[in-house]
Amino acid sequence: MSKSVVDGNHSHSDEQSNDVARRDGRWRDSHGEPEATARGHTVLAKLTTHLVDTYSKCGLPRHEQPKTARRLLTKNSQVVANNGWDNCDNNIVLRVRDLLDVHTRSGVAKTFVVLDLLGQGTFGQVFRCQDVATKAVVAIKIIRNHPSYYKQALVEVQVSQLVQQDKLHSMAHPSQVVPSIKLVDFGSACYENETVFSYIQSRFYRSPEVLLGLPYCGAIDMWSLGCVSAEMYLGLPLFPGASDHDQLKVIVDTLGWIVLKTAEEYARDCHTTVASSKRYFKHSALPDIINAYPIRRGASTDEVSKERHSRAAFCDFLCGLLQLDPQNRWTPQQALDHPFLSGRPYIQPYEPATHRRRNI
């Protein structure tokens, strides 16, 4: 009786192994090479036939997807709230290949499989997901499980659907500007008649009225637009304040005087220390900063003249956006009508058409 050897889930007799060796052209009978060589070929056949099946059987836990440990995506992964779903930050804890059931505004239920974490912030997490039905890859934002974040998320959805109605962004800065999309991230947006937040806008782009704790309106976005426009031209923030007090000081140095507390008074009243920021520019006044920016080497006399004229128009445009008094700050329509944007010849001084601004 021939001896059977189990290899994976298949069996082969010595006679079958011999047939394999014969086909290889290396089999020798008893008058040829020693018997040890024949055994060596037999062992080789046993070890290599159905090798993939053997490896799969030996490494079964690794090949069975349901038993594979799934990578945690939420940074703080200890669940402590919401019946074992949320962490202490009220963020849902998700892993790779988790399933999300989502109901769209039209009432259609969809299922998405979680692929990866794209990012997270104050309001929640954004996951890279795939629609189980259509295989489309999308980004899904899951806000924190807290009433205040839920209410603000509803405002964000509503504001994102409004294009022409009164609204303000309140977080305009370079990372929020996308070519062809204009402006993104309405997480801190609010209606002009519902300005409930006092700490808004990134500091470098924060308007004087917000810095001073005064009532504000949509004019704060025009201030931010002016800051972003200058930074896109100069390559550096126009007002790089290290604190709110220092931010006001930089603004005053550049645009003119506002009655401010001294650094000592501010530190005493706010129970803090006043840091001074790094100054990026040699000059202080806005026109001097713009005009001191280097002109391209090798420019012809005509090109230099056109550049000077363009800078004068740009400086005038910035001055309209960076008015310290929000009531005097240009509206979006006034800014759009300026020759710097419209392409019309710039003739000093530019007087914008009167557009009604909502009173603060």
Automatic annotation (TrEMBL):
Protein's name according to its UniProt entry: Protein kinase domain-containing protein
Alphabetical keyword list: ATP-binding, Kinase, Nucleotide-binding, Serine/threonine-protein kinase, Transferase
InterPro entries registered for this protein in UniProt: Kinase-like_dom_sf, Prot_kinase_dom, Protein_kinase_ATP_BS, Ser_Thr_dual-spec_kinase
Residue segments, region Disordered: 1-41
UniProt GO MF annotations: ATP binding; protein serine/threonine kinase activity; protein tyrosine kinase activity
Pfam family, one: Pkinase
Ranges of compositional bias, category Basic and acidic residues: 9-38
Keyword ATP-binding tagged: yes
Keyword Iron: no
Chain residues that bind ATP: K141
The Protein kinase domain, residue ranges: 1-341
Gene Ontology CC annotation, any one: cytoplasm
Top-level taxonomy: Eukaryota, Sar, Stramenopiles, Oomycota, Saprolegniomycetes
